[in-house]
Protein backbone atom coordinates (compact mmCIF):
# COMPACT_ATOMS: atom_id res chain seq x y z
CA UNK A 1 0.00 0.00 0.00
CA UNK A 2 2.69 2.42 1.09
CA UNK A 3 4.92 1.20 -1.72
CA UNK A 4 2.26 1.69 -4.35
CA UNK A 5 1.45 5.14 -3.00
CA UNK A 6 5.10 6.12 -3.27
CA UNK A 7 5.42 4.50 -6.68
CA UNK A 8 2.36 6.37 -7.84
CA UNK A 9 3.69 9.63 -6.42
CA UNK A 10 7.00 9.10 -8.24
CA UNK A 11 5.25 8.18 -11.45
CA UNK A 12 2.94 11.17 -11.19
CA UNK A 13 5.90 13.42 -10.50
CA UNK A 14 7.75 12.03 -13.48
CA UNK A 15 4.74 12.55 -15.71
CA UNK A 16 4.17 16.09 -14.61
CA UNK A 17 7.75 17.27 -14.51
CA UNK A 18 9.41 15.34 -17.33
CA UNK A 19 9.81 18.17 -19.77
CA UNK A 20 9.00 20.44 -17.62
CA UNK A 21 5.60 22.19 -17.72
CA UNK A 22 6.02 25.99 -17.91
CA UNK A 23 2.31 26.91 -17.74
CA UNK A 24 -0.40 24.57 -16.47
CA UNK A 25 -3.75 25.42 -18.06
CA UNK A 26 -5.49 22.08 -17.38
CA UNK A 27 -8.24 23.33 -15.06
CA UNK A 28 -8.27 21.74 -11.58
CA UNK A 29 -11.68 20.65 -10.27
CA UNK A 30 -11.69 23.40 -7.65
CA UNK A 31 -11.62 26.11 -10.33
CA UNK A 32 -15.01 27.88 -10.12
CA UNK A 33 -17.31 30.36 -11.80
CA UNK A 34 -16.30 33.01 -9.25
CA UNK A 35 -12.61 32.35 -10.09
CA UNK A 36 -13.02 33.02 -13.82
CA UNK A 37 -15.09 36.14 -13.09
CA UNK A 38 -12.07 37.44 -11.17
CA UNK A 39 -9.42 36.18 -13.68
CA UNK A 40 -7.93 34.02 -10.89
CA UNK A 41 -4.88 31.78 -11.36
CA UNK A 42 -3.79 30.64 -14.78
CA UNK A 43 -6.57 32.37 -16.78
CA UNK A 44 -6.90 36.01 -17.77
CA UNK A 45 -10.50 36.41 -18.95
CA UNK A 46 -10.75 39.99 -20.26
CA UNK A 47 -11.22 39.33 -24.00
CA UNK A 48 -15.00 39.00 -24.07
CA UNK A 49 -18.25 40.93 -24.27
CA UNK A 50 -19.82 43.05 -21.56
CA UNK A 51 -21.23 40.30 -19.34
CA UNK A 52 -19.34 38.55 -16.54
CA UNK A 53 -16.64 36.16 -17.72
CA UNK A 54 -18.56 33.11 -16.45
CA UNK A 55 -21.24 33.93 -19.02
CA UNK A 56 -18.69 33.06 -21.72
CA UNK A 57 -16.29 30.58 -20.02
CA UNK A 58 -17.81 27.54 -18.32
CA UNK A 59 -15.90 24.95 -16.30
CA UNK A 60 -17.69 21.66 -16.88
CA UNK A 61 -16.67 19.68 -13.77
CA UNK A 62 -17.42 15.97 -14.22
CA UNK A 63 -20.09 16.60 -16.88
CA UNK A 64 -17.74 15.94 -19.81
CA UNK A 65 -14.69 13.72 -20.19
CA UNK A 66 -11.54 15.66 -21.08
CA UNK A 67 -8.97 14.50 -23.64
CA UNK A 68 -7.85 11.03 -22.49
CA UNK A 69 -4.16 11.48 -23.40
CA UNK A 70 -3.06 13.34 -20.23
CA UNK A 71 -3.07 11.51 -16.89
CA UNK A 72 -3.96 14.73 -15.08
CA UNK A 73 -7.36 15.36 -13.45
CA UNK A 74 -8.92 18.35 -15.19
CA UNK A 75 -12.22 19.95 -16.18
CA UNK A 76 -13.13 20.79 -19.76
CA UNK A 77 -13.70 24.48 -20.53
CA UNK A 78 -16.55 25.60 -22.76
CA UNK A 79 -15.87 28.94 -24.48
CA UNK A 80 -19.06 30.57 -25.75
CA UNK A 81 -19.87 33.52 -28.02
CA UNK A 82 -23.23 35.20 -28.48
CA UNK A 83 -24.29 38.56 -29.86
CA UNK A 84 -22.99 40.30 -26.74
CA UNK A 85 -19.45 39.01 -27.41
CA UNK A 86 -18.14 42.34 -28.70
CA UNK A 87 -14.73 43.16 -27.25
CA UNK A 88 -13.73 46.78 -26.69
CA UNK A 89 -9.94 47.01 -26.19
CA UNK A 90 -8.97 49.84 -23.81
CA UNK A 91 -10.07 53.16 -25.26
CA UNK A 92 -10.45 51.83 -28.84
CA UNK A 93 -13.68 51.37 -30.79
CA UNK A 94 -15.80 48.27 -30.07
CA UNK A 95 -14.84 45.38 -32.37
CA UNK A 96 -18.28 45.10 -33.99
CA UNK A 97 -17.02 42.85 -36.82
CA UNK A 98 -15.89 40.06 -34.47
CA UNK A 99 -17.59 37.97 -31.87
CA UNK A 100 -14.92 36.71 -29.48
CA UNK A 101 -14.39 35.04 -26.09
CA UNK A 102 -10.79 34.17 -25.27
CA UNK A 103 -8.80 33.06 -22.29
CA UNK A 104 -5.17 34.24 -22.07
CA UNK A 105 -2.41 32.39 -20.21
CA UNK A 106 -1.09 34.20 -17.14
CA UNK A 107 1.23 33.19 -14.27
CA UNK A 108 -1.36 34.18 -11.60
CA UNK A 109 -3.93 36.92 -11.00
CA UNK A 110 -1.17 39.26 -9.83
CA UNK A 111 1.58 38.11 -12.19
CA UNK A 112 3.34 40.07 -14.92
CA UNK A 113 2.17 38.58 -18.23
CA UNK A 114 4.90 40.22 -20.31
CA UNK A 115 7.67 38.76 -18.16
CA UNK A 116 5.84 35.42 -18.07
CA UNK A 117 5.43 35.30 -21.86
CA UNK A 118 9.20 35.74 -22.16
CA UNK A 119 9.59 32.50 -20.17
CA UNK A 120 7.01 30.60 -22.25
CA UNK A 121 8.52 31.98 -25.46
CA UNK A 122 12.28 31.44 -25.20
CA UNK A 123 14.34 28.50 -26.39
CA UNK A 124 12.15 25.73 -27.78
CA UNK A 125 8.67 25.34 -26.25
CA UNK A 126 5.54 23.33 -27.03
CA UNK A 127 1.99 24.76 -26.90
CA UNK A 128 -0.50 21.96 -26.19
CA UNK A 129 -4.28 22.16 -26.73
CA UNK A 130 -7.19 19.81 -27.39
CA UNK A 131 -10.59 20.83 -28.66
CA UNK A 132 -13.94 19.44 -29.68
CA UNK A 133 -17.25 20.72 -30.96
CA UNK A 134 -20.19 21.50 -28.68
CA UNK A 135 -23.16 19.62 -30.14
CA UNK A 136 -25.64 21.97 -28.50
CA UNK A 137 -23.91 25.15 -29.75
CA UNK A 138 -22.39 24.42 -33.19
CA UNK A 139 -20.28 26.89 -35.16
CA UNK A 140 -21.67 28.39 -38.39
CA UNK A 141 -19.31 27.18 -41.13
CA UNK A 142 -20.33 29.97 -43.47
CA UNK A 143 -17.80 31.86 -41.32
CA UNK A 144 -14.11 31.46 -40.54
CA UNK A 145 -13.00 31.07 -36.91
CA UNK A 146 -9.73 31.25 -35.04
CA UNK A 147 -9.35 29.15 -31.90
CA UNK A 148 -5.76 29.34 -30.61
CA UNK A 149 -2.82 31.65 -31.25
CA UNK A 150 0.14 33.62 -29.86
CA UNK A 151 -0.15 37.35 -30.52
CA UNK A 152 2.81 39.77 -30.21
CA UNK A 153 2.08 43.52 -29.95
CA UNK A 154 2.14 43.97 -33.74
CA UNK A 155 -1.07 41.92 -33.91
CA UNK A 156 0.48 39.11 -35.95
CA UNK A 157 0.16 35.45 -34.95
CA UNK A 158 3.27 33.32 -34.37
CA UNK A 159 0.99 30.43 -35.33
CA UNK A 160 -2.76 29.98 -35.19
CA UNK A 161 -5.53 27.40 -35.31
CA UNK A 162 -7.98 28.29 -38.07
CA UNK A 163 -11.39 26.61 -38.36
CA UNK A 164 -13.01 26.76 -41.76
CA UNK A 165 -14.76 24.75 -44.42
CA UNK A 166 -13.32 26.55 -47.41
CA UNK A 167 -10.58 24.29 -48.66
CA UNK A 168 -12.30 20.96 -48.52
CA UNK A 169 -13.38 18.01 -50.54
CA UNK A 170 -16.88 16.57 -50.63
CA UNK A 171 -18.68 15.46 -48.59
CA UNK A 172 -18.43 18.80 -46.82
CA UNK A 173 -15.95 18.49 -44.00
CA UNK A 174 -15.00 21.20 -41.61
CA UNK A 175 -11.28 21.57 -41.11
CA UNK A 176 -8.83 22.53 -38.41
CA UNK A 177 -5.69 24.12 -39.82
CA UNK A 178 -2.44 25.22 -38.22
CA UNK A 179 -1.06 28.30 -39.95
CA UNK A 180 2.45 29.72 -39.78
CA UNK A 181 3.22 33.40 -39.08
CA UNK A 182 2.83 34.33 -42.77
CA UNK A 183 -0.54 32.57 -43.03
CA UNK A 184 0.71 29.45 -44.80
CA UNK A 185 -1.28 26.38 -43.77
CA UNK A 186 1.23 23.87 -42.40
CA UNK A 187 -1.27 21.13 -41.48
CA UNK A 188 -4.99 20.49 -41.95
CA UNK A 189 -7.28 17.80 -40.60
CA UNK A 190 -11.06 17.24 -40.60
CA UNK A 191 -12.93 18.63 -37.57
CA UNK A 192 -15.00 15.62 -36.49
CA UNK A 193 -18.17 16.24 -34.56
CA UNK A 194 -17.65 13.99 -31.54
CA UNK A 195 -13.95 13.46 -30.83
CA UNK A 196 -11.14 15.33 -29.14
CA UNK A 197 -8.53 16.75 -31.52
CA UNK A 198 -5.15 16.98 -29.78
CA UNK A 199 -2.46 19.40 -30.97
CA UNK A 200 0.98 20.56 -29.95
CA UNK A 201 2.87 23.26 -31.82
CA UNK A 202 6.60 23.37 -31.10
CA UNK A 203 8.06 26.84 -31.53
CA UNK A 204 11.81 27.38 -31.81
CA UNK A 205 12.03 31.02 -30.70
CA UNK A 206 15.69 31.40 -31.72
CA UNK A 207 15.71 29.67 -35.10
CA UNK A 208 12.15 30.80 -35.92
CA UNK A 209 10.69 27.45 -36.85
CA UNK A 210 7.46 25.55 -36.13
CA UNK A 211 6.67 21.84 -35.95
CA UNK A 212 3.15 20.48 -35.53
CA UNK A 213 2.10 17.35 -33.57
CA UNK A 214 -1.47 16.01 -33.72
CA UNK A 215 -3.68 13.07 -32.76
CA UNK A 216 -7.37 12.21 -32.84
CA UNK A 217 -9.27 10.95 -29.78
CA UNK A 218 -7.25 8.69 -27.47
CA UNK A 219 -4.19 8.28 -29.71
CA UNK A 220 -0.83 9.69 -28.59
CA UNK A 221 0.52 12.74 -30.43
CA UNK A 222 2.54 12.22 -33.61
CA UNK A 223 4.61 14.65 -35.67
CA UNK A 224 2.55 15.73 -38.69
CA UNK A 225 4.98 18.24 -40.20
CA UNK A 226 8.73 18.63 -40.50
CA UNK A 227 10.48 21.53 -38.81
CA UNK A 228 9.04 24.39 -40.90
CA UNK A 229 10.66 27.75 -41.42
CA UNK A 230 8.73 30.64 -39.77
CA UNK A 231 11.26 33.39 -40.31
CA UNK A 232 8.74 36.18 -40.92
CA UNK A 233 8.25 36.08 -37.11
CA UNK A 234 10.42 38.47 -35.08
CA UNK A 235 13.11 37.28 -32.67
CA UNK A 236 13.18 38.54 -29.05
CA UNK A 237 10.62 40.52 -27.00
CA UNK A 238 8.87 42.05 -30.05
CA UNK A 239 8.07 38.56 -31.26
CA UNK A 240 6.68 37.39 -27.91
CA UNK A 241 3.02 37.75 -27.02
CA UNK A 242 -0.03 36.41 -25.27
CA UNK A 243 -1.20 32.82 -25.68
CA UNK A 244 -4.95 32.86 -26.47
CA UNK A 245 -7.57 30.11 -26.72
CA UNK A 246 -11.33 30.36 -27.23
CA UNK A 247 -13.60 31.40 -30.10
CA UNK A 248 -13.01 34.29 -32.49
CA UNK A 249 -15.66 34.45 -35.25
CA UNK A 250 -14.81 36.53 -38.31
CA UNK A 251 -17.60 38.40 -40.13
CA UNK A 252 -18.92 37.82 -43.64
CA UNK A 253 -18.57 40.68 -46.11
CA UNK A 254 -21.57 42.99 -46.13
CA UNK A 255 -22.09 44.07 -49.78
CA UNK A 256 -23.91 47.21 -48.63
CA UNK A 257 -20.73 48.56 -46.96
CA UNK A 258 -17.96 50.55 -48.69
CA UNK A 259 -14.78 48.77 -49.89
CA UNK A 260 -12.83 50.35 -47.01
CA UNK A 261 -15.40 49.08 -44.51
CA UNK A 262 -15.42 45.65 -46.14
CA UNK A 263 -11.63 45.49 -45.67
CA UNK A 264 -11.95 46.35 -41.96
CA UNK A 265 -13.12 42.97 -40.65
CA UNK A 266 -12.53 44.03 -37.05
CA UNK A 267 -15.27 46.65 -37.13
CA UNK A 268 -17.60 45.83 -40.06
CA UNK A 269 -19.33 42.95 -41.79
CA UNK A 270 -22.13 40.50 -41.07
CA UNK A 271 -22.64 38.63 -37.80
CA UNK A 272 -25.85 36.72 -37.13
CA UNK A 273 -25.43 37.05 -33.37
CA UNK A 274 -25.94 33.34 -32.72
CA UNK A 275 -24.79 31.49 -29.61
CA UNK A 276 -21.92 29.10 -30.44
CA UNK A 277 -19.14 27.30 -28.55
CA UNK A 278 -15.96 25.27 -28.62
CA UNK A 279 -14.78 22.99 -25.83
CA UNK A 280 -11.14 22.81 -24.73
CA UNK A 281 -8.98 20.66 -22.47
CA UNK A 282 -5.33 19.61 -22.25
CA UNK A 283 -4.04 23.19 -22.45
CA UNK A 284 -0.46 23.64 -21.23
CA UNK A 285 2.94 24.88 -22.31
CA UNK A 286 6.12 22.91 -21.79
CA UNK A 287 9.81 23.32 -22.38
CA UNK A 288 11.09 20.70 -24.80
CA UNK A 289 14.50 20.39 -23.16
CA UNK A 290 13.70 16.73 -22.39
CA UNK A 291 11.41 16.18 -25.36
CA UNK A 292 7.74 16.78 -26.04
CA UNK A 293 4.98 15.01 -24.09
CA UNK A 294 2.96 12.87 -26.50
CA UNK A 295 0.49 11.36 -23.99
CA UNK A 296 0.28 8.66 -21.30
CA UNK A 297 3.54 9.82 -19.69
CA UNK A 298 5.63 9.29 -22.83
CA UNK A 299 7.87 11.82 -24.48
CA UNK A 300 9.51 12.08 -27.88
CA UNK A 301 12.42 14.20 -29.05
CA UNK A 302 11.48 17.20 -31.18
C1 LIG B 1 -7.17 24.43 -5.91
O1 LIG B 1 -6.52 23.63 -4.92
C2 LIG B 1 -5.10 23.76 -4.93
C3 LIG B 1 -4.52 22.72 -3.96
O2 LIG B 1 -5.13 22.84 -2.72
C4 LIG B 1 -4.72 25.17 -4.56
O3 LIG B 1 -3.32 25.34 -4.58
C5 LIG B 1 -5.34 26.13 -5.58
O4 LIG B 1 -5.09 27.47 -5.22
C6 LIG B 1 -6.84 25.90 -5.70
N1 LIG B 1 -7.31 26.67 -6.85
C7 LIG B 1 -8.38 27.42 -6.81
C8 LIG B 1 -8.71 28.18 -8.06
O5 LIG B 1 -9.09 27.52 -5.81
C1 LIG C 1 -21.74 39.64 -12.37
O1 LIG C 1 -21.06 39.32 -11.17
C2 LIG C 1 -21.36 40.20 -10.10
C3 LIG C 1 -20.43 39.85 -8.92
O2 LIG C 1 -20.47 38.47 -8.67
C4 LIG C 1 -22.81 40.08 -9.74
O3 LIG C 1 -23.14 40.98 -8.72
C5 LIG C 1 -23.64 40.41 -10.98
O4 LIG C 1 -25.00 40.19 -10.71
C6 LIG C 1 -23.22 39.54 -12.15
N1 LIG C 1 -23.89 40.00 -13.34
C7 LIG C 1 -24.56 39.16 -14.14
C8 LIG C 1 -25.20 39.79 -15.35
O5 LIG C 1 -24.64 37.96 -13.93
C1 LIG D 1 -26.20 42.08 -32.45
O1 LIG D 1 -25.48 43.16 -31.91
C2 LIG D 1 -25.32 44.23 -32.82
C3 LIG D 1 -24.37 45.23 -32.19
O2 LIG D 1 -24.79 45.57 -30.90
C4 LIG D 1 -26.68 44.80 -33.16
O3 LIG D 1 -26.51 45.84 -34.09
C5 LIG D 1 -27.53 43.71 -33.76
O4 LIG D 1 -28.82 44.19 -34.00
C6 LIG D 1 -27.60 42.50 -32.86
N1 LIG D 1 -28.21 41.39 -33.56
C7 LIG D 1 -29.16 40.66 -33.01
C8 LIG D 1 -29.67 39.53 -33.82
O5 LIG D 1 -29.59 40.89 -31.89
C1 LIG E 1 6.51 43.39 -16.51
O1 LIG E 1 7.62 42.78 -17.11
C2 LIG E 1 8.20 43.52 -18.17
C3 LIG E 1 9.22 42.65 -18.86
O2 LIG E 1 10.07 42.02 -17.94
C4 LIG E 1 8.74 44.80 -17.61
O3 LIG E 1 9.31 45.57 -18.65
C5 LIG E 1 7.61 45.58 -16.95
O4 LIG E 1 8.12 46.73 -16.32
C6 LIG E 1 6.92 44.73 -15.91
N1 LIG E 1 5.71 45.42 -15.47
C7 LIG E 1 5.45 45.60 -14.18
C8 LIG E 1 4.18 46.32 -13.87
O5 LIG E 1 6.19 45.22 -13.31
C1 LIG F 1 -24.98 30.99 -40.81
O1 LIG F 1 -24.59 32.19 -41.47
C2 LIG F 1 -25.26 32.44 -42.67
C3 LIG F 1 -24.66 33.68 -43.30
O2 LIG F 1 -24.87 34.81 -42.51
C4 LIG F 1 -26.75 32.60 -42.40
O3 LIG F 1 -27.42 32.76 -43.61
C5 LIG F 1 -27.27 31.35 -41.69
O4 LIG F 1 -28.62 31.57 -41.32
C6 LIG F 1 -26.44 31.08 -40.45
N1 LIG F 1 -26.86 29.82 -39.86
C7 LIG F 1 -27.23 29.72 -38.61
C8 LIG F 1 -27.65 28.36 -38.16
O5 LIG F 1 -27.24 30.69 -37.85
C1 LIG G 1 4.93 31.79 -46.58
O1 LIG G 1 5.56 30.55 -46.31
C2 LIG G 1 5.42 29.56 -47.30
C3 LIG G 1 6.03 28.28 -46.83
O2 LIG G 1 7.33 28.43 -46.41
C4 LIG G 1 6.02 30.06 -48.59
O3 LIG G 1 5.81 29.11 -49.59
C5 LIG G 1 5.36 31.37 -48.96
O4 LIG G 1 6.00 31.91 -50.09
C6 LIG G 1 5.43 32.38 -47.85
N1 LIG G 1 4.63 33.53 -48.23
C7 LIG G 1 5.00 34.79 -47.96
C8 LIG G 1 4.04 35.84 -48.41
O5 LIG G 1 6.04 35.04 -47.38
C1 LIG H 1 19.29 26.40 -34.45
O1 LIG H 1 20.31 27.11 -35.08
C2 LIG H 1 21.58 26.84 -34.55
C3 LIG H 1 22.57 27.83 -35.13
O2 LIG H 1 22.23 28.19 -36.43
C4 LIG H 1 21.92 25.40 -34.84
O3 LIG H 1 23.18 25.08 -34.32
C5 LIG H 1 20.87 24.51 -34.18
O4 LIG H 1 21.09 23.16 -34.53
C6 LIG H 1 19.49 24.90 -34.63
N1 LIG H 1 18.53 24.18 -33.85
C7 LIG H 1 17.58 23.47 -34.39
C8 LIG H 1 16.65 22.81 -33.45
O5 LIG H 1 17.43 23.37 -35.60
C1 LIG I 1 6.43 28.38 -43.19
C2 LIG I 1 6.61 29.84 -43.31
O1 LIG I 1 5.79 30.61 -42.89
N1 LIG I 1 7.70 30.25 -43.92
C3 LIG I 1 7.97 31.65 -44.20
C4 LIG I 1 8.53 32.32 -43.00
O2 LIG I 1 8.82 33.66 -43.31
C5 LIG I 1 9.75 33.86 -44.36
C6 LIG I 1 10.01 35.32 -44.50
O3 LIG I 1 8.82 36.02 -44.66
C7 LIG I 1 9.21 33.24 -45.62
O4 LIG I 1 10.18 33.37 -46.65
C8 LIG I 1 8.92 31.78 -45.37
O5 LIG I 1 8.35 31.24 -46.52
UniProtKB/TrEMBL annotation:
<feature type="domain" description="Glycoside hydrolase 131 catalytic N-terminal">
    <location>
        <begin position="21"/>
        <end position="291"/>
    </location>
</feature>
<dbReference type="Pfam" id="PF18271">
    <property type="entry name" value="GH131_N"/>
</dbReference>
<protein>
    <recommendedName>
        <fullName>Glycoside hydrolase 131 catalytic N-terminal domain-containing protein</fullName>
    </recommendedName>
</protein>
<keyword id="KW-0732">Signal</keyword>
<feature type="signal peptide">
    <location>
        <begin position="1"/>
        <end position="18"/>
    </location>
</feature>
<dbReference type="InterPro" id="IPR041524">
    <property type="entry name" value="GH131_N"/>
</dbReference>
Amino acid sequence: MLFSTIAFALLFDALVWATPVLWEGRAPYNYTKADIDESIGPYFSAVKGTHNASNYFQFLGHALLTTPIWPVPEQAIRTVIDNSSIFTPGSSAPQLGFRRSEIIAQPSESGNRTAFDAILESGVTAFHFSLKTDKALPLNYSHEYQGVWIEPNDGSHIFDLQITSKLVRTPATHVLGIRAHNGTVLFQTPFHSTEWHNFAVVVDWDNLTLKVFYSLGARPLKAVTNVEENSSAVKGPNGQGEFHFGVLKLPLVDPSETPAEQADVVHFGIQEGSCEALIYSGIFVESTQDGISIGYGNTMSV
